[in-house]
């Protein structure tokens, strides 16, 4: 007897009622919530960083250059050199429990699970990294093992960009594409207009000012993108500007202190402006002495906030003549943010709970 062809789909658990003529009613199980953040190396070593960058920078949504050309640049020039240069920067921010991005992402998942447990809602929450571990496919497997046949994916980016939010959708779709018995899927596209998210940001700023006094300027530093992608239709810049306007309104008269910039420029082409570090240097040269910097596009502190902003940008501002540079941490596991996240997710679970 010939062997059956190997299937492209993963095997499913045996269903004892698969051939019943009158099977019992099927229960959908608890809804699952998948929180997806960008990703991080497993450890602050050149080898781990190389593996992470190879996956991250090979995503065509992240680097929109023909892959045959980009892979030559990536594997011939970037991966042999960049990881060793980044390792000390990662070591500088590494926490006892691991990468800050992963530590805070897991804390957010735990906090969200605790909210639903306290309400008696049968919801299961998992955190995943788009690049690195825990992988999206593994997190979906975990939710399915807990009986979840309906999964809401929450890309942990308040503002939409194809290089962040869309990559999370791609990863979930790819994982579902390998399944014979797919779960029902929903996605949150963006949530910067959510009043509770803006309220959590404003409360974070107010608490900081109550403890340390107000600055001369509050700079909102968003992650940058090549200007080209916005010209081609990416709505990210508009999302960032609207976020800033909403926060200005929430801060009332103090909203006049708010300015916007973009960080983490990569490569030679023109990115969204103004750039964060040059902005801070120009302010210091013009006589601005006290600034606060906040990164509303990041929900968890990471290399870009702790090392780039709190480290590099602080040094640049002080070296240019500034006197006081204060970084306002990301929302991380702030209770106000966890409550806001729970409310957001609860609304998107409508009809499932």
Automatic annotation (TrEMBL):
It is an enzyme of class 4 (lyase). InterPro entries: Ferrochelatase (IPR001015), Ferrochelatase_AS (IPR019772), Ferrochelatase_C (IPR033644), Ferrochelatase_N (IPR033659). It catalyses: heme b + 2 H(+) = protoporphyrin IX + Fe(2+); Fe-coproporphyrin III + 2 H(+) = coproporphyrin III + Fe(2+). Residues 9-25 have a biased composition (Basic and acidic residues). Keywords: Cytoplasm, Heme biosynthesis, Iron, Lyase, Metal-binding, Porphyrin biosynthesis. It is found in: Cytoplasm. Fe(2+) binds at residues 223, 304. Its EC number is 4.98.1.1. It comes from the Bacteria. Residues 1-32 are annotated as: Disordered. Pathway: Porphyrin-containing compound metabolism; protoheme biosynthesis; protoheme from protoporphyrin-IX: step 1/1. Catalyzes the ferrous insertion into protoporphyrin IX. Belongs to the ferrochelatase family. This is Ferrochelatase. It comes from Candidimonas humi. The lineage of its organism: Bacteria, Pseudomonadati, Pseudomonadota, Betaproteobacteria, Burkholderiales. The gene is hemH.
């Amino acid at each position: 007897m010939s062997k059956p062809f190997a299937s492209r789909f993963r095997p499913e658990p045996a269903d004892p009622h698969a051939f019943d003529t009158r099977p019992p009613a099927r229960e959908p199980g608890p809804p699952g919530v998948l929180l997806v953040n960008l990703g991080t190396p497993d450890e602050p070593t050149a080898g781990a960083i190389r593996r992470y960058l190879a996956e991250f920078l090979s995503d065509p949504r992240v680097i929109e250059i023909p892959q045959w050309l980009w892979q030559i640049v990536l594997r011939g020039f970037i991966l042999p050199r960049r990881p060793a240069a980044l390792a000390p920067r990662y070591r500088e921010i590494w926490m006892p429990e691991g990468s800050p991005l992963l530590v805070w992402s897991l804390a957010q998942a735990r906090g969200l699970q605790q909210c639903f447990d306290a309400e008696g809602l049968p919801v299961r929450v998992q955190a995943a990294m788009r690049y690195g571990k825990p992988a999206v496919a593994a997190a979906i497997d975990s939710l399915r093992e807990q009986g979840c046949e309906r999964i809401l994916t929450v890309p942990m980016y308040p503002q939409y960009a194809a290089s962040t939010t869309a990559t999370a959708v791609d990863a979930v779709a790819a994982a579902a594409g390998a399944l014979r018995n797919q779960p029902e899927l929903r996605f949150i596209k963006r949530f910067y207009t959510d009043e509770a998210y803006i309220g959590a940001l404003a409360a974070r700023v107010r608490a900081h000012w109550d403890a340390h006094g107000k600055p001369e300027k509050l700079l909102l530093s968003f992650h940058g993108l090549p200007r080209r992608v916005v010209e081609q239709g990416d709505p990210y810049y508009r999302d960032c500007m609207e976020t800033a306007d909403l926060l200005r309104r929430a801060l009332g008269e103090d909203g006049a202190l708010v300015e916007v910039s973009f960080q983490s420029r990569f490569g030679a082409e023109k990115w969204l402006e103004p750039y964060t570090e040059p902005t801070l240097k120009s302010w210091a040269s013009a006589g601005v002495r006290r600034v606060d910097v906040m990164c509303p596009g990041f929900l968890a502190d990471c290399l870009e906030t702790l090392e780039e902003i709190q480290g590099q940008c602080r040094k640049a501002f002080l070296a240019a003549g500034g006197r006081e540079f204060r970084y306002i941490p990301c929302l991380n596991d702030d209770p106000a943010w966890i409550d806001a996240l729970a409310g957001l997710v609860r609304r998107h679970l409508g009809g499932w709970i």
